[in-house]
């Protein structure tokens, strides 16, 4: 019997680096997704280190698409209805349609990579009892 691999979606959170200018359409490389601290390199200049956080409950991810307006056609006798045979667009109808696309159980939060992070990680490894 073959086991099916379960897809896992992860949200990449860049709020921790909001003060860094990331050029639009900049090339990026994301590595180490199967490690505790994945690395994100943007435009071969910006290096970020990530850390997974479990979500509380399930986060849903939605996409938004343009939706056709809802059109109502008036019916009834033409004598009593000035709009008979005309189409009326509902102004209260939303112009966007939202659809769920994935469920998340983890968020990958990034912060700027620095030498201090490397030193902290090596110090923590060196100080662990064997």
UniProtKB/TrEMBL annotation:
Cited Pfam families: TFIIIC_sub6
A single BP term in Gene Ontology: transcription by RNA polymerase III
Upper lineage: Eukaryota, Viridiplantae, Streptophyta, Embryophyta, Tracheophyta
Species whose genome carries this gene: Fraxinus pennsylvanica
InterPro entries noted in UniProt: GTF3C6-like (IPR042771), TFIIIC_triple_barrel (IPR019481)
Gene Ontology cellular-component terms listed: transcription factor TFIIIC complex
Transcription factor TFIIIC triple barrel domain ranges (all copies): 4-113
UniProt name for this protein: Transcription factor TFIIIC triple barrel domain-containing protein
Superkingdom to which the source organism belongs: Eukaryota
